[in-house]
Design a protein that fits this description.
With 198 residues, this protein is α+β, with helices and mostly antiparallel strands. Helix content is 25%, strand content 27%. It contains 5 helices and 7 strands, in the order H-E-E-E-H-H-H-E-E-H-E-E. The strands form 2 sheets. Strands 4-5-3-6-7 form a 5-stranded antiparallel β-sheet, covered by helices on one side. A two-stranded antiparallel ribbon has the order 1-2. A hairpin with a 2-residue loop joins strand 4 and strand 5. It is elongated, with a radius of gyration of 20 Å. The N and C termini lie far apart (49 Å).
C-alpha cells in the first residue's frame, strides 16, 4: 500500500545510511532536481529538514522579486495620493517590506537566518490601476536570498492592501515571483521575458 507521505524511491533509497553514500540535498541519483527540505525519517516516511549549509562556500548572493497590486478603477490614484486613512501608503509599505525581508528566517520554517547586507523595496505604478513592487536583497553567505526578496515583496504588497482597504476591499495582490538570483553553486538565474516594468 502506498502512503501519500512515503518518499519517492530516489529520496528513500540509501546505502545503509552511510555518510556520503547518497545524493546531496537537491539532487537525485540521476542528477535531477528534488525537494531539498525533505528527507527520510527513522520510519521511512518523509519529514521536513533544514539543509546543512555549513560546508558551502561563502559567496555574494542577491535576488530580485516582485508582486503586483491591482486596484479597482480610480482607487490607486487616491490611495497613492495620500487619500487613504492611514497615511503615506508607499512609504509604510517599503518599510514593512524591508523589515519582513530581515525576518524571513522567523516566518518561513526551513529558511536560514541571514545577515543581510542590503534590502531595497520600490513601488512603481505601471498603469492607472496596477502597482509593481520590487524587492532586492543581498548578502555574503552560504545560502541564497530568494525567499528574503519574495517575503519582502509579499509583505509590502499586503501592507499596501492594509493601508488602502478602507477605499476598496476589491484590491487584489497577484504574481508574487522571483525575477532573478545571483551567486551560489547554481550561479545566475533570470526569469525569461519578465523584466521589471513589464
Amino acid at each position: 500500500m502506498t502512503d501519500s507521505q512515503d518518499l519517492p524511491p530516489h529520496a528513500a533509497a540509501s546505502d545503509g545510511g552511510a555518510a556520503g553514500s547518497g545524493p546531496s540535498h537537491g539532487e537525485t541519483p540521476t542528477g535531477e532536481a528534488e525537494l531539498s527540505h525533505v528527507e527520510a525519517g527513522p520510519d521511512g516516511r518523509a519529514r521536513a529538514v533544514m539543509v546543512d549549509v555549513g560546508g558551502k562556500e561563502v559567496t555574494g548572493r542577491s535576488a530580485l522579486a516582485r508582486a503586483f497590486v491591482l486596484f479597482p478603477p480610480g482607487v490607486m490614484g487616491k490611495a497613492l495620493g495620500g487619500g487613504g486613512p492611514k497615511g503615506p501608503v508607499v512609504e509604510v509599505a517599503r518599510i514593512a517590506g524591508i523589515q519582513a525581508a530581515k525576518r524571513t528566517g522567523e516566518l518561513v520554517p526551513m529558511c536560514h537566518p541571514l545577515g543581510l547586507d542590503h534590502v531595497s523595496v520600490e513601488c512603481e505604478p505601471r498603469s492607472e490601476d496596477r502597482l509593481e513592487i520590487l524587492c532586492r536583497a543581498s548578502c555574503s553567505g552560504r545560502t541564497g536570498v530568494e525567499m528574503e526578496a519574495m517575503v519582502g515583496a509579499s509583505i509590502a504588497a499586503l501592507t499596501v492592501y492594509d493601508m488602502a482597504k478602507a477605499l476598496s476591499k476589491g484590491i487584489r495582490i497577484e504574481a508574487v515571483e522571483l525575477l532573478e538570483k545571483t551567486g551560489g553553486k547554481s550561479g545566475t538565474w533570470r526569469r525569461t521575458g519578465d523584466a521589471p516594468g513589464s
